[in-house]
Amino acid sequence: MKLWLEKQRYLIDYTLASLARRKARNLGLLLVYTLLVFMLASVTLYTHALRQEAARVLASSPEVIVQRMVAGRHDLIPPGYMEKIGRIRGVQKMEGRLWGYYYDTVTRANYTFMVPAVSVPANNEIIVGPALERSRGLARNNGVTFRSYSGKLHSFVIAEVLPQASELVSADLVLMSEENFRAFFDYPVGHYTDIALSVANPQEVRNVALKLAAALPDARPILRDEVLRTYASIFDWREGIVLALLSAAILAFGILAWEKASGLSAEEKREIGILKAIGWETGDVIKMKFWEGLLVSLTAFLVGFVAAYVHVFHFAAALFEPVLKGWAVLYPRFQLSPHIDGVQVATLFFFTVVPYAAAVLVPIWKAAITDPDTVMRG
Amino acid sequence: MIKLQGIRKAFNQGRDNEYWALNGIDLHVEANKVTALRGPSGSGKTTLLTIVGCLARPTVGRVSLMGEDISGLPERFLTEIRRRRFGFIFQQFNLIKGLSALDNIILPGYPTGRPRHELLARADELLAGLKLGHRREAKVEWLSGGEQQRVAICRALINDPELLIADEPTANLDSHLAREFMAILRDLAAQGRTILLTSHDPLVVDSAVVHRVVDMRDGKLQGGR
Q1: Among 3.40.50.620, 3.90.25.10, 3.40.190.120, 2.40.40.20, what is the CATH number of A64-223?
Q2: ipTM of this model?
């Protein structure tokens, strides 16, 4: 056992010395490899964290949202609609919601105006999202005036700025009282933008949606699960775009790795011959070269992944943010909660480290099983 | 010590460029003696040396070491024999560049798993014996031809083998260094080691250190002294 341990120590010593001897080449390879892992890990970590964030925020949203459709377009909910829904079994709670979009010519951005269900601001007071606070340079107790679509000016006082934690969905939000909202948009009394429904039993959500569609043929029930799925597919799509852009880099690395893997330099072949001639076993030579490949790829993976983690969770993925987060004038600025998915790490590991380490082995194996007599012939 | 019977060796067998480097060699290499294989280039000296040193297998024929037939042994066992019983001094020295003289010398000791301090002590002893102690930490590419050869000799001796195999050991040395090598060879022979070498250098083959010279031509033995 002691001899075996000593032998392994020698192998590791020799592997490290061997890496150090080809410093420039190995450092170059390590750099390219690390960069690739960094980019891939950044994209996957970021989109995964965004998905998690969206799911976390939407977890508290209603199970079903009912919209009314006219000629295939979203229309206002007329009075009497709520009463019809109230008769459907399984609906625990129902709430008419008021919200709409407003284009601000000053910042050239769209805001979402909304009447909250709880903590409704007093009349002529509003609560704003953090992006609005930044773009308009607003603070608590400041006054702000918006020109409504009818041309009238409406002035409000900022009662509060929403916390950053919820910025993914609240960046462009303006919360106001129902009276202010209806006056601003000339919204008819008794009409709502849509209806939020709570369903007690999650198993019943789909049945409730079916009953809704039957009772109100012009209604479109939107399930929370569908919204989550939509978010997920948007992030998947964006992830796909970035990965497509990165494909050139991946291809370049593939060629580099293949170049290294498919052919040994004359010096490496000579070295293998010498080691075998002086009594190293084929297995020892293969093991040593395998450790060499594994060490390079493992270091690249660890450094690349840690750098990607720092990039995503401490520098808000500055490199890929515009593509991955979406297109808007008001970018939400928020700190993603660090989250690492084991399967994701394993997948990345499998597709970066394993092929490289394995590819390196093939030519080594070929060289190592040949007779060492070639070394005698110089 | 080593017996070769009916040894034939083909390269590229079965192809258009098939070539028989050895054509029926019967030879007995005696223990504790210095034997030299002499012959022109292409006579098969080096091929024969690789077969004796378990670096290659004969296509036909038998090789026995201390009475044991080793020509049919699997690669693993041949490696073990090579490591424990043979020391090699190659014509081009075949040292690994980028490593120090000391690291090159202890390389054959790695697969044995001997403790490092033991290997280092033995390497220092060998280096001191060949007056090279002051160059132990120097990278081998910084050494002169003679120094490189002495490092190669130390490496061949690190596992204390019974047999030394040297291929054209003076081919890359001037006369002065060749004489120095012969002096080392004399000491090694005096220690009772069996030495088999190839050479067509008169300084080697005509030397009194060499007990027996075997002539070769066209892959066959031609007699000798």
Answers
A1: 2.40.40.20
A2: 0.90
Query: Where do the structural domains in chain A lie, given as residue ranges?
Result: 13-58+230-377, 64-223
Q: Between A and B, how many CB-CB pairs are < 8 A?
A: 94
Show the domain range for B73.
2-224
CA-based nearest distance A255→chain B, Å: 28
Rg (CA), chain A: 31
Contacts of A278 in chain B (CB under 8 A): 82-83, 88, 107-108, 155
**Which residues of chain A neighbour B83 with C-beta distances below 8 Å?**
278-279
CA distance B139 to B96: 9
Looking at CA atoms only, how far is residue A167 from chain B in angstroms? 57
Probe site for chain A from B11, B110, B116 (most A CB atoms < 10 A): B110
Number of domains forming the structure of chain B: 1
Flag if B108 and A279 touch (Cβ within 8 Å): yes
Q: pLDDT tens for residues B93-123?
A: 899 999 999 999 999 999 888 899 999 999 9
Which DSSP state fits B30? P
Contact: B90, A378; criterion CB under 8 Å:
yes
Note the pLDDT tens digit of each residue in B13-72.
888 888 899 999 999 999 999 999 999 888 999 999 999 998 888 999 999 998 889 888
Measured CA to CA, the distance from residue B37 to residue B221 in angstroms comes to 9
